[in-house]
Design a protein that fits this description.
By secondary structure, the protein is an alpha+beta fold. The protein contains 3 helices and 2 strands. It has a two-stranded antiparallel ribbon. Strand 1 and strand 2 form a beta hairpin. Helix 1 packs across helix 3. The longest helix is centred in the last third of the chain and has 17 residues. The protein starts with a helix and ends in an 8-residue tail after the last helix.
Length: about 90
């Protein structure tokens, strides 16, 4: 599912590289978070890894723009023939 959503995300927004992170801990609340962090084109090489994960430099979207982005990602997922809700 992470691969499907990652490919859909890369088709929905300009992406030079997609970072996939799995975060979690066995010591605290045992769970895992998957994060997909698209790196926009044009970021200088020496800044790439940190820029993709820097929330201060990330997308700043209002609620309408977030809904539009979600719709674009869902549309790209539908093009793969996979429904994430049914997976």
């Amino acid at each position: 599912m992470i691969h499907l959503v990652g490919r859909a995300l890369c088709r929905a927004v300009p992406t030079e590289r997609l970072y996939v992170l799995s975060l979690g801990s066995q010591e605290g609340n045992r769970h895992i978070h998957w994060h997909l962090a698209p790196l926009p084109p044009g970021v200088p090489f020496e800044e790439q890894q940190l820029v993709a994960l820097d929330s201060d430099l990330g997308l700043v979207l209002d609620e309408v723009e977030l809904k539009e982005l979600a719709a674009r990602i869902r549309e790209r997922l539908a093009q793969t023939g996979k429904d994430p809700a049914g997976a």
